[in-house]
Fold Bgt-4179.
Amino acid sequence: MCSIELHCTLCPKNPKFSDVSHLLTHMSSKGHLAHRFKLQIRSQSEVEAKERLENFDFWYHKNNLDSLLSDRLATKEQKKGR
């Protein structure tokens, strides 16, 4: 896997993280998801919001974060089953 930029460009404070685990925790948080939802709504009428969301989505897919989040969820579910 390539090196992932450990900061969230989607959230207003542009938080930085010390490792991938903390980044994934942030991306699953209510705060991050709320910012994403609001940006998606704004992107319907604001060019800047649309570009910001597109840039975030490109970074997200380029770094395979959907798979990392999926693996993390599966691991959590597996631990619950024990």
In short: The chain is about 65% helix and 0% strand.
